[in-house]
Amino acid sequence: MSPNSLSKVLRIFCAVAFLFFGVAVQRTLASDHVFTGTITKVDTGAKTVAVKAKDGTIHTVKWTDDTTVTGLKGGAHGADLAGKEGGHVIVHTTGEGADETARSFDYVGHRTVHVADVTVDDVGEGSKSVAVHTADGTKDTLHVGDHATVDTGKGIEKGGHYTVYYTEDAGKKVAHFFGRL
Asked: Strand (E) positions, the chain?
């Protein structure tokens, strides 16, 4: 085989491998899920947290050493949720059923988590506030929490459509998670 033929074969192989990798990444992202609920049980031995979602479904979610936990003073691991039963969390998972594993838990205590689909009108300086409007035209300003997560890899973009999970604190709407619609 000539060097030019070998080069062509390698380029084709790399292109095919890249396409398969892209499909695998899309499947992984498609299996991601975000929900909010109340912690009902923490099992530190099994590394699981049972969370009752608003629809009544109980998700038993595993955590790993890579799972992030925000919203706790001095806590940063799934085990730190022990003793927080009855508190509310926003959970970002991958997998389904027995394989549902948390990427992150955002503990919000006893504050109610609201969910809204929004379009971003403007992003404030330093991305600490975001002007949005809902499908019915209602305009609002969201204050971006210190540990807010944006599930796009790009940050919050003007004109972007998101599902936002937020709480209210002293009259301010504090965004905890933005997921691309």
From this structure: 33-43, 48-53, 58-62, 68-70, 88-94, 101-109, 114-123, 129-134, 139-151, 161-169, 172-180
Amino acid residing at 102: A
pLDDT per residue over 58-79, tens digit each? 999 999 999 999 999 877 899 9
Cβ–Cβ < 8 Å for 88, 54:
no
Q: What's the number of CA atoms in the CB half-sphere (13 Å) around residue 102?
A: 29
> How many whole angstroms separate alpha carbon 88 and alpha carbon 111?
7
Name residue 61's beta-bridge partners.
49
| ∠ Cα 26 15 30 (to 5°) | 0
Structure tokens that stand for 142 in this block: 């969201």
Give the mean pLDDT of the chain.
83
Determine contact, residues 180/117, Cβ cutoff 8 Å. Answer: no
- Please answer whether residues 81 and 47 qualify as being in contact, where contact means their C-beta atoms are separated by less than 8 angstroms: no
pTM for the structure as a whole? 0.76
Residue 55 is encoded by which pair of tokens?
């629809």
Backbone conformation region of residue 141, classed left if phi is above 0, alpha if psi is from -120 to 50, else beta: beta
Whether the CA torsion 15, 20, 21, 25 is positive or negative: it is positive
